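hi! just following up on the protien thing from before. the input was this:
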Amino acid sequence: MNKETLVGIDYLSEALEHHGTKGMRWGVRNRVSGGRSSRREAKELKKSDKATSDKWKQTYKNRGNMSDKELQAAVNRLNLEQRLGQMSGSIPQSQKNSGESYMKKMGQQQVVNATNQVTSELVRQGIKVAGTALANR
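and the predicted 3d structure came back as:
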């Protein structure tokens, strides 16, 4: 064979191929803690919590029509639920929401403070540079 003979390379045999896992869905990650069913259960639990919350809000709106006995029963129930939540370490959603809004406000205030500091420093440095440039004329 002479040196001018072309050597063919089979690029297809050197290709790396991967077609995924059979039955796997695009964009769905399998979680160790339960996967899709736990997400579904969490969504259903959230719906039931909202329904319960809406029920108590409606009861509160109609408190003027309740007898003393019904009102006392409702108060006792809410106190028991609150104590159970405290004992189990869970935080009621209303307290979570107020905490989240507080943290958002604090975060926004921190951003405003940082922005003001940076702007003040830039203006101070700009004035210093401009003063130096005028003095050197």
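The chain has a mean pLDDT of 77.
The chain is about 65% helix and 0% strand.
cheers
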